[in-house]
Amino acid sequence: MKIGVFDSGLGGLTVVSSIQKIFKGAELFYIADTEYAPYGEKTPEEILDRCDNITTYLLQNHGIEALIVACNTATSAAIKHLREKFPFLIVIGTEPGIKPAILNTKSLNIGVLATPRTLKGDKYQLLVNELSATKQVKLYEQACIGLVEQIEKGEIDTKETYDMLQKWLSPMKNENVDTIVLGCTHYPLVDDIIKRIMGNDITLIETGDAIANRLKILSEQKGHINKGPLHISVCHTGLINRYMIDKILDNKNIEVRKCTI
User: Fold this and answer.
1) Is-catalytic flag, 144?
2) pLDDT at 59 over 80
């Protein structure tokens, strides 16, 4: 099976990391669209157009059978369009894990870290309205402006990144937040810092494992046999931090090249 995965940068590799734990017998082509990063600061129309171009590129150059939109912002802007335009593809999006957070919380206070575009998106608002009706919870939403850029530069364990997170998380800690939704695929890369600030009892909800399981189920329904090696290649449209690729995937043998889309 041939699988395409894309994000505006390195964040979607956290999803690829989850996929490589359970998925076999496939070629996976990852697009890090760093030239257009971050998506969270683009208009919905710009994001949709970019997602369409990347999907077309993956189809024409790699003949993909499954597509994973490994970005909450891009999912909100383009997932409906992609499913309608490419009905022959398995198309899996990324949504903030509000549902598992609501099921998990004991204090009924939930933090949500996301990009501004995700928090403003109709898909997120509909999800919150639908699920919050099932349990009376209080959401503390925080738009993490600049965090994606810090992660892309590899500045994870720096004072600047710590100070950013501490500023956003301190009010949540004061409000007895016990569960935090990581509403961007980049954010699991700073989960150690979040735990350092919030305490090890905090529950962090990310979606990589759920996406990997969904891919496995849907592909097996189409006849995929989950055996054999998984080959991963990474294509980037702008600058990229190669060290971070090796760190996230724990694999120094991955082909990395630049491409034009």
Assistant:
1) no
2) yes
